[in-house]
Amino acid sequence: MKRPLLIDEIAQEVIQLLDPYKSIQRKLEVYHREIRAGDFSLKADQKIHLFAVGKAASFQLEALIKFFKDTVLSERLGRCVSYTKRGHTVAGRNFIQLEGDHPLISSDNLRQTQVFLNYLSEIEKGDTVLFLISGGTSALLEQPSGELNFESLQKAHEEILNSGLGINEMNAKRRQLSLIKGGGLKKFIKTPHVLQMLTSDIPNNKLSDIGSGPLFGEGGEDPHAVVLQSADLLMEGLVRKFPFCEVGKIYDCQFPEMEDDLLEILKQKNKSDFFHLSGGEATIQVPANAIAGGRNTHFVLSMGQKIYGDESYKDLWDVQIMSLGTDGSDGNTPCAGAFLNYDLWSKKEAQTYLDSFNSYGYFKELDTLIDTGPTKTNVMDLRLLWRLS
Question: What domains are there in the chain, each with its CATH number?
């Protein structure tokens, strides 16, 4: 069976909507000597410094530099520094790039954080700073509070990661351990002329939880914040391109809870045409002997097995299923996700692959993996369930 053209059209639109340069163009403009973000503006009378931290830092900083190079403020660009996950730097660029470890912090993260803070502390009082923050910042940018040594800090971070808590609860605990999180970073910035641009990988878009809020809280006024990218913005963009789309929930729950909720939504659709989008991420327990796959391929295969493998859901057998990771990767695989419908499912037994957590192998043999390549950002997962006549 030929893969529906719609699959590739949606994947390409996701890439376009998440492109760092285009995202910046949608949010920023330069008017004379002012930097504007909606109703907010910064006068750039002196130097403009660009700092970025998180897994998307180097890619976003590269895009922000390109943005300013095309404006009257290009000659005012000063120091440009990114601090990102190891292996996520941009080759051949002439800005400063620091690398640390993620998701578990290392002693190198503390050293790189100090280097990052030293650069930030050198910014003059009258200068302007634009600060890009994306997912991964909580692990990368860290300085322990009180008498906490590195070993204790690392153990505490690991316990938080393995706790099963939601991201908001996890970040509340992380803030208690840190001199940087929860607004602590503001102590290292002399100038009041600061704009933070956030890429949200938080289900409820609580801004102070993105990267554990290094520029939110701890007294004083917080720098103005603009959400550069988020699951909500991505789905809104998809609706503009594909107006038949219906926007659903941003999930932050256990995997079975999300599946059950989506099944209930499908039951309510009866035989009508629909195209249902949902975002966010659901937690799944992966055994040590798992073979290959991630949240997205596992969801598509599991959801397909629930629907297509059950006669009581026969009215839903024309539903099609797609899911992808918006960073372009899915678990321990090189793909972003996969696509499945009843005809494809009928060609290959699925339960064995589910039991061995080998959803990647299943879809590789069916040739329905979705490969976007790195999108240079991450706003969690995107799921699609549809029936179109």
Answer: 32-229 (3.40.50.10180), 244-387 (3.40.1480.10)
